[in-house]
From TrEMBL:
Transmembrane segments: none annotated. InterPro entries: Bact_Kbp, LysM, LysM_dom_sf, Lysozyme-like_dom_sf, Transglycosylase_SLT_dom_1. Residues 126-168 are annotated as: Disordered. The lineage of its organism: Bacteria, Bacillati, Actinomycetota, Actinomycetes, Kitasatosporales. Residues 139-153 have a biased composition (Basic and acidic residues). Residues 75-124 form the LysM domain. It comes from the Bacteria. This is Peptidoglycan-binding protein.
């Protein structure tokens, strides 16, 4: 007896079915539509992904502000009797001495720096405040940012023993030789006679802006004292008043004290002190010892 075969029903898969009609020419075809049971659609493989990046706007460069310059300030001095440009410059500490003071006041003093009158107002110094603007910060460019990014991505330099093997030792820095000190100028030695006294006096007068020449001094010395530094006049009106004329250029003591040049002796009979004081007086009274051709 033949064996009876067992028939099994095929299992149905949980799919949704539908029918769609598609026209091909004049024939309509019924096609089943199979949709996945899952509600969410899977992403398409190979599709490009897009990531949004925030781009920061470049910071504005700060603006450097320069403060306005302060107005200039001036100091003045009123000339009194017995003053000279050299004495004022020394007394007030004028940088550049009498020459700087004369340049500043040339229009007021005139062509002769040795001739100034009491009551004349001199400008001593002009200052002006200077403000240095603050440096503006440098704006970072795209190329600089790229350079920093490249440096960050560069592998670190090996340290320790590996670094010593990888790179040669650095050569020691050369130490510059110290510049030789400048020797101080040698002091000038003057002869202890009329020629040396006049030459030394001229050097001191040049430092204090007192005019005069060798010939002008020598001519007046020979007329007043014949070159004797100890000469004294005991018979003229000055002697009668109790202040006799003394020294190479026959200077009375009140005039010597009023026109004494700093740095010289306070002894009226000292040849250099006598000559410089007399020339300082002559410059104030006559413009220069060169303009004196008689009793003064």
């Amino acid at each position: 007896m033949p064996a009876h075969g067992k028939h099994r029903r095929p299992r149905r898969r949980p799919v949704s079915q539908g029918i769609a009609l598609a026209g091909t020419g004049g024939v309509a075809l019924a096609l089943p539509l199979i949709a996945p049971a899952a509600a969410g659609a899977a992403p398409v493989s190979g599709a490009p992904e897009f990531t949004a990046r925030a781009v920061a706007a470049p910071a504005a460069a700060p603006v450097a502000v320069t403060a306005p310059a302060a107005p200039a300030a001036a100091r003045t001095y009123t000339v009194v009797s017995g003053d000279s440009l050299s004495l004022i410059a020394q007394k007030k500490g004028i940088q550049g001495g009498w020459k700087s003071l004369y340049r500043t006041n040339r229009s007021a003093v005139g062509d002769n720096p040795s001739l100034i009158h009491p009551g004349l107002e001199l400008t001593l110094r002009r200052d002006s405040a200077k403000v240095t603007p603050a440096p503006a910060k440098k704006k970072t460019t795209d190329s600089e940012r790229a350079s920093r990014s490249e440096r960050r991505s560069t592998p670190a330099t090996p340290t320790g023993a590996s670094a010593a093997q990888a790179a040669p030792a650095a050569a020691p820095a050369a130490v510059p030789a110290a510049a030789p000190a400048k020797a101080a100028p040698a002091a000038t030695n003057y002869a202890d006679n009329l020629d040396g006294w006049i030459r030394e006096s001229l050097a001191i007068m040049a430092q204090h802006g007192i005019p005069g020449t060798y010939d002008g001094i020598h001519r007046n010395v020979m007329r007043e004292s014949s070159g004797n530094p100890q000469a004294i006049n005991l018979w003229d009106s000055n002697a009668a008043a109790g202040t006799p004329s003394k020294g190479l250029l026959q200077v009375i003591e009140p005039t010597f004290l009023a026109y004494h040049v700093p740095g010289t002796s306070m002894d009226l009979f000292d040849p250099v002190a006598n000559i410089t004081a007399a020339c300082n007086y002559a410059a104030d009274r006559y413009g220069s010892i060169d303009n004196v051709n008689g009793a003064y």
